[in-house]
Amino acid sequence: MLFSTAGLATQILVRAGSVYLLFDTGDGTLRDLLARHILPQKIGAIFITHGHADHMAGLYAILGYLRAEDYKGHFWIYYPRGTCEVEKVIAAFQCCYHSTMPYELIFHSLNDGDTVTVGEAQILAKKVFHWHSIKGRPIAPVPALGYRVTFQNEVLAITGDTAFFPGVVELIKGADVALIEATLADDAPLEQRRLLHLTYQEAKTLASFAKETIFIHTAQSHA
Q1: Which among 74, 18, 4, 11 is positioned nearest to 48, based on CA atoms?
Q2: What's CA 101's distance to the chain center, in Å?
Q3: Is the pTM of this model over 0.90?
């Protein structure tokens, strides 16, 4: 867990054998990787859960670092179909540096049920339920995915941001380790609980479906 606090940033680094996978790139991801002596060049792929700034604001910095370091190779990014924030950041970077790009940037959108193989790891994308909001006021649904990572018969589930719905149980059920967002207080307004995030109690209930749980994306009062 590189960092995860609701509204600030989330970035999760997973090692599957010799492959590193990065889930979300909130602000400060580059700093957090380098502080742990993990070069971005070692990342096998980035998987974005959704386009909110606290989950992808650090993407541009990683792309810029790879260019500045003259990385030569391929770099993969996956994200939910319809995530315009990710696509716009990539387009802006390519617009500025297309003639001086030493590496090939490969990016693909994912739908519910799509599977990606990176090294020996299989990453399954699962739709979750999350809305845009301003000051806790829901506005509209956002394309959002959770992920199940399978490596050597072990499963890691990552919820991303989601309200409670039956699909999130399927995402977590049977996982060896589940990273479950636990953003809201149990007495949060009903609209926020229905459309935005899990409460701490809901996250604890979901934890019963996995062998081990780490709560992520907690509010600062839970951190």
Answers
A1: 11
A2: 25
A3: yes
pLDDT digits (tens, 9 = 90+) for 37-96: 999 999 999 999 999 999 999 999 999 999 999 999 999 999 999 999 999 999 999 999
Q: Specify the residue for token string 């509204």.
A: 7
Task: Sort 82 into a burial class: Cβ within 10 Å, 0-12 / 13-18 / 19+.
Answer: middle
Q: Which domains does the chain have, with CATH numbers?
A: 3-216 (3.60.15.10)
Q: Is the pLDDT of residue 219 over 90?
A: no
Q: Distance between alpha carbon 193 and the CA centroid of its chain, in Å?
A: 20
Classify each residue of 58-71 as buried b or exposed e, where b means 16 or more C-beta atoms within 10 Å of its C-beta: bbebbbebbbeeeb
Whether 20 contacts 13, CB under 8 Å: yes
CA atoms in the 13 A half-sphere facing the CB of 46: 29
115 pairs with which residues across the strands? 124
